Amino acid sequence: MASKVPSSEMKSTKGTILSELLPEGGPARCQLITEKESVEQEDHPRARYQLITEKESLDQQDKLRRCTFGKKDQVKVNKTILIVGETGTGKSTLINAMVNYVLGVEWKENVWFEIVEQEQENGEQTESQTTGVTVYEVFGYEGRRIPYSLTIIDTPEYGDTKGIQKDNMVAEKLLELFRSEKGIHQVDAVGLVVKSTTNRLTERQKYIFDAVLSLFGKDIEKNIVALLTHCDGNPPKNALQAITAAKVPCAKNERNHPVHFVFNNRQCESFDAEYQERLDYDHLQEQAWNQGLKSMERFFTFLNNIESKSVRMTEGVLRERKQLEAVVVNLQERVKEIEGKQKELKDTLNVLEKYKNEMEENKNFSFEIEKIYKDKILVDTSGNWFILNQGATICTVCKENCHYPGCWWAFNPAGCLVMEDNHCTVCTNKCHYTKHVKGNVRYVLKTRMVTRTYEQLKHKYDISEKGAGEKENVLIRLQKGLEELTNRKASLVEESYQCLINLEKTALKSISLSSAKHLDLLIEKMKETGDVEKVKKLEELKKLAEEEQLAGYFQRMMIHIKRPY
Fold first, then answer.
1. What is the distance between the alpha carbons of residues 114 and 30, in angstroms, rounded to a whole number?
2. Cα distance between residue 155 and residue 141, in whole Å
3. Which of 2, 191, 349, 385 has the smallest CB count inside 10 Å?
């Protein structure tokens, strides 16, 4: 158990919190949500106030923002919670309850404060609330109930009808938050919000948890806990079994059950004044409030004891995932180019064999072959309204696409995710970032028919000998060229394989990040190298990937069936 804050350090909050936040003659730090008339009643329901926070957008699209209440003390400890949950589980109420606990709100004060912004009058929330990531910070209340300040990362719902594109954007925004100098650099707990009455996780919930947990490394597993809401006091046996059955990675207790905390979500409730007087339910509400305090105390004690985890591994997992995707796409293009060159050499060999006599009689003998070459085209950025700097990072030396598609983060090559130690991890020569360009063009492979002569071949392969041996030398050079291309293909396949294996070792939910088509390509090309063990390993990963992909497909289908519009 964590050591509690000494009573000598605890401040009395009874009857003072509202006067602190609404001081006479000073700036208001909260504003009334409920109607004024109801507050002025002698036996009024619990008054609700919206905390006035300092808002800051951390990106250009306002999809990543920070809401700060209080002034940060750099000397004092801060704890960070990432909250994930399906709409309807009580996630916003739970966040508000945590903030009230930190503020030190007491039952008899008859007030309730909210940090999560309310819906607008038309019942809708702003676009940034429903699709973006919000960071809530509460400073200045260390020592009231907890000895540290609190940061809560609130993720929007995943898997809704806006599709995978939005879900990927939320993942990218988390990465942006972790990478930013002004962002979050460590996480103390990941809270998976589930109703305590849940008998099984829905397709939607599985999709939500998988989407978020796919971002983290394996070192975060002991920091992942279940936050069970709407608990009526009975043991949440079914909910725990549902989490276990869904194979959700999380911390386990001595009974091998998911580490969990239960909340009743009733602290903010208020009974009608007349109804309270008539049936005297006030004591039940107070019991619910006190039970909520005990639940919060248990959770924040856990948070005080748990070891913080740096998000560097998270960033590393995401970076390596992006690099894997970029390497595989680049691999496909380079293999296609190599195979085009192999075809060109094979066609040339066939011509030399077939027209050997004609070439001996005619030094100007010519023939046509199909030649592969690279061209530049404009990048199509339509449909990516939420990404202002979509495009491609290309290498001007290797003439390759180093990051396309998905190069959304960087405004210049130096900041591209495929760069490490100022060099590209993708292009053939691993060139310096200064040899790259981030823009709206990319390379594509095309073919055209070209005319060749035997004399051109001799010049190309530097064959100066005369007589019967020169054709054999040309053939030898062509065969050697084929062997070099084959070795280059094998090297590319090995590079992609190692990237995939490294991702599997570090990622908490790695398989779901590797699409079946990428594995198919690797298996096909690895078979050409003859490495049986690696082929077997890739086929095992493919089987797992197909299971994940099939499950995800049905999850998304069920979501669309339940919410077709």
1. 9
2. 24
3. 385
| Sequence-ordered list of residues with C-beta below 8 angstroms from that of 59, at least 6 positions apart, any chain | 173, 176
As a whole number of angstroms, the distance between CA 520 and CA 294 comes to 52
Question: What does the CA dihedral 343, 346, 351, 352 come to, rounded to 10 degrees?
Answer: 150
Residue 247: left if φ>0, alpha if ψ -120 to 50, beta else—which one?
left
Q: How far is 192 from 212, CA to CA, in rounded Å?
A: 10
How many C-beta atoms surround the C-beta of residue 26 within 10 A?
9
pLDDT-based confidence at 466, cuts 50/70/90? low
CA pair distance 85, 108, nearest whole angstrom: 31
CA 457 centroid distance within chain? 52
Report how far apart, in Å, the C-alpha atoms of 143 and of each of 2, 8, 77, 97, 518 are.
14, 9, 11, 18, 52
pLDDT digits (tens, 9 = 90+) for 186-236: 999 999 999 999 998 887 788 778 777 877 877 889 999 999 999 877 889
Task: Please compute, for residue 535, the number of CA atoms within 13 A of its CA located in the half-sphere on the CB side.
Answer: 11
CA distance linking residue 407 with residue 384, whole number of Å:
12
Q: What is the distance between the alpha carbons of residues 526 and 538, in angstroms, rounded to a whole number?
A: 9
What pTM value is reported for the model? 0.69
Q: What is the DSSP string of 430-493?
A: --BGGGEEEESEEEEEEEEEEEEEHHHHHHHTT----STHHHHHHHHHHHHHHHHHHHHHHHHH
Query: Of 407, 377, 411, which Cα lies nearest the Cα of 392?
Result: 407
224 beta partners: 190
Structure tokens that stand for 230 in this block: 């709407």
Which element (helix H / strand E) includes 84? strand 78-85
State the pLDDT confidence band at 5, using cuts at 50, 70 and 90. very low
565 Cα distance to chain centroid: 26
Alpha-carbon distance of 344 to 267, in angstroms, equals 75
Tokens of 125: 């929330």
Q: What are the C-alpha distances in Å from 394 to residues 295, 426, 429, 489?
A: 53, 10, 13, 21
Q: What is the pLDDT of residues 23-34, one digit of tens each?
A: 877 788 888 876
Q: Are strands 441-453 and 149-154 parallel, antiparallel or unpaired?
A: unpaired
What is the predicted pLDDT for the residue at 465?
53
CA distance to 218, 233, 244, 260, 262, per residue, from 256 (Å): 18, 22, 10, 12, 17
Strands ordered across the beta sheet of 189-195: 54-57, 64-69, 133-138, 149-154, 78-85, 189-195, 224-229, 260-262
The token duo for 86 is: 């399906």
Amino acid of residue 122: N
Per DSSP, what are the bridge partners of residue 56? 66
The closest alpha carbon to 216, from 183, 178, 165, belongs to: 178
CA-wise closest residue to 507 among 233, 249, 331: 249
**CA distance linking residue 143 with residue 239, whole number of Å:** 34
Higher pLDDT, 174 or 158: 174
Helix (H/G/I), strand (E/B), else coil: 185:
coil
Residue 227: name the closest of 191, 267, 281, 255 by CA: 191
Q: How far apart are alpha carbons 319 and 214 in whole angstroms? A: 12
Residue 244 token pair = 């276990």
